[in-house]
Q: What sequence folds into this?
């Protein structure tokens, strides 16, 4: 198996047969490098939906006022393209919370139970 190109079948067969040679180790290292590069590119670019969500999150932040707590239903009423339901708002606001741009709290709505409230973090 000293050839320059090794198939995955040859690689896996050598592993199963416990015939680990320096060529096998080099092939495995090369495959790991390829996987790392592929994963790096995927993380950097993101999916089309993730890229669209970035714009939506920026629009939400732009529409929110500092010190005011909004519910998901109130955020839907901002009229931002791409937001049509509270189910879309909740994960986006969780991502913004993880990024430290908003805080999440429980808000009591008259006639309803508690719902999540989102408040813009004051940039200081």
A:
């Amino acid at each position: 198996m000293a050839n320059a190109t090794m198939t995955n079948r040859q690689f896996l067969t050598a592993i199963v047969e416990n015939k680990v040679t320096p060529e096998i180790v080099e092939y495995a290292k090369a495959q790991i490098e390829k996987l790392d590069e592929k994963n790096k590119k995927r993380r950097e670019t993101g999916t089309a939906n993730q890229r669209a969500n970035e714009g939506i999150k920026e629009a939400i932040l732009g529409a929110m006022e500092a010190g005011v707590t909004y519910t998901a239903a109130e955020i839907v009423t901002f009229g931002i393209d791409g937001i049509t339901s509270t189910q879309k708002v909740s994960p986006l606001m969780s991502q913004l919370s993880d990024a430290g741009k908003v805080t999440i709290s429980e808000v009591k709505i008259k006639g309803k139970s508690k719902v999540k409230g989102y408040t813009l973090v004051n940039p200081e």
In short: DSSP finds five helices and three strands in the chain. The helical segments are 8-16, 22-45, 48-63, 72-76, 86-98.
